[in-house]
Structure formats: C-alpha cells, structure tokens
Amino acid sequence: MESLLIYLFLFILGSAIGSFLNVVIYRVPLRKSIISPPSSCPNCNTRIKPWHNIPILSWIILGGKCANCKEPISKRYPIIEFLTGVLAVAIYYKLKSIDIFFVINFATFATLLALAVIDLDYKAVPDSLNLLALTLAFFSSPNIIENIKNALLMIGIVSLVRFYLSYLLKKEALGEGDIIVAGTMGALLGVKLSLVALFIASLIAIFPSIYIRIKNKDLELPFIPFLAIATFIVWYFDDFFTNLWRAIYG
Ligand SMILES: [Zn+2]
C-alpha cells in the first residue's frame, strides 16, 4: 500500500514535470524563455488557468480543446505528460530508492525525451539541452571519473564512425547532436552497453527508414528518438544485456 502511494506520487510528480517539458520542447528551439510568460493558447492567446493546466486530466476533461476558443490542442501534450510520469515510476522501480541518483537519472532521461521530440520536429536539437543531458549523465552514478571517461570514448567512437560514413556515403552522415547524445549514452551505460544500445537504435530505425524510402524520398529520419528509446531500454534491462554480451563475447 505504502509503495503504491509512492508510485502514484511519482507518477503525478513526473507528469507535472512532463507538463514543464512540453514548455521546454515548444520554447527552447524558438529561443524563448521557459520561465515567463505563463502558458497561453497559441490560437487565442488566453492565459491557461491553473485548473486547466492539470497534467493529462485537463486535456481529457476539456476534450482536447482550448477552454476559451475551442481550438484543438495536440494529443502530444498529454502523451508527453503521461510518458514522463511513467518514466519517473520506471526509474524508481529500477533504482528502488529516491536519492540524488534517482533525481539525476530522471532528469537525464527527461531531457533525452525532450531532445527526442525536438529532433522529430526540427531534425536538429539545441546544444543547450543536449549538453545539459550529457553533464547530468556524468553524475548519474557514483563513479564520476569512469562516467566521463566512457562519455569521451563514445564521443570518440561515434565521431570516427561519422568520419568513415561521411567519406563512404559522400555526404554528411550523423549529426553533431547525435555525437553529444552518444556521450550521454557512454556516461549512463558504459561503453559495451552503449554499443548494444547503438545497435538496437539502428535496428529500430530500420523499419521507419524503409517506410520513408517507400513513401517519400526527401524526408530525413531523426535519429535521437531511436537513440533515446534504446538507451532507456538498455539502461533499464542492463543485467539482461550485460549477460547477453558475456554469452556472446565472453
Ligand atoms: Zn484558445
């Protein structure tokens, strides 16, 4: 019962932070302040009242429309709030304690979530958020020097792959944003599991990239959403993937 209350509390707290992530996702790429002014409807500019700003619930109660002008509000807002709530619960379930490392890991993955959505929108991500995720990841576990070392190794590995790919494909392969994310992965997962995560990210990305090839040749596929999903999967199931690595490579 007590633990159920903790999960409920973390879900509510997480979804409230998800509501803030929505602001970050909308404003940071436009170089607007994330603190002021308070949120308003993009259509009629009416300030969103606090009781219309309850994560997930307000969107459902208002039927996905602005309370004033009835302009539809994207499903994306409650989805991101829900995902951030689930993220808080999942990270607590994994770490089994609420301490500084819970806070840092949650903050890192929440920032990766924001980066993934911004990459979907713009096919590029702001360095401010990307470097924030990397810096947070340095402190995601007690061995900070090891985390920084792993981040640097992953940045080196992915930069080298980028040089080769760009040369072989005769065009710019992988973005600079992807390299910083690779550093974040290194700090969170270590080198071996980061390579596993890169492999899984590429594997998941194959299906939409084939779909895009068939549908529309000009569309560019953002890679950070796949990196973020794979990083979380491998971080969460790290024991499974460590054992898998040992079974294959000894
Ligand atoms: Zn409105």
What's the short version?
The protein is an all-alpha fold and about 250 residues long. The protein has helices at about 1-25, 55-60, 75-95, 100-120, 125-140, 145-170, 175-215, 225-235, 240-250. Zinc ion binds near residues 43 and 68.
Structure description:
The protein is mainly alpha-helical and about 250 residues long. It has 2 domains: about 1-100, no CATH class; about 100-250, no CATH class. It is about 70% helix and about 0% strand. The chain contains 9 helices and no strands. It has helices at about 1-25, 55-60, 75-95, 100-120, 125-140, 145-170, 175-215, 225-235, 240-250. Helix 1 (about 1-25) runs parallel beside helix 4, helix 4 runs antiparallel to helix 5 and helix 7 (about 175-215) crosses helix 9 (about 240-250). The radius of gyration is 19 Å and the shape is globular. The mean pLDDT is about 95. Zinc ion binds next to loops.
Task: Using brief descriptors, characterize the structure shown.
2 domains; 0% strand; 250 residues; binds zinc ion; 71% helix; mainly alpha
Architecture blueprint of SSEs:
Layout: H1 2-27, H2 57-61, H3 76-95, H4 100-122, H5 127-138, H6 144-169, H7 176-215, H8 224-236, H9 238-249
Helix pairs in contact: 1-3, 1-4, 3-4, 4-5, 4-8, 5-7, 6-7, 7-8, 7-9, 8-9
The structure holds zinc ion.
